[in-house]
Amino acid sequence: MKKTLVLGASDNPARYSFRAVHQLRQHGHEVVPVGIRKGQVAGLAIHTDRPPEADIDTVTLYVGPQNQPAWYDYILDLNPKRIIFNPGTENAELEKLAQQRGIRTEEACTLVMLSIGNY
Question: In this protein, which residues make up the domain named CoA-binding (predicted)?
Fold first, then answer.
């Protein structure tokens, strides 16, 4: 299973990141929720710092491109195998930085990928 860091995690059931954490767990993936507000989602505490994580396979983004620069170093230093840019998070600058480090990038929807077995 793919250890996934959900950046932009929220305890608000109306948010796609909330659904993503739940669906990832239902599919058996280890999830690290990181957000700007403390809370819980799918029984997991939302980290509001930048937790040092090892063996991250995927970072899935739920943070708009205007707020991503503050996270660039953290995301890239995790050295994930891939970064998923969910709808509304597309960012050519971060994609280029990631690709320069050998990190695969995808503009896709985590929820759709999980639902069709393409995660």
Answer: 2-114
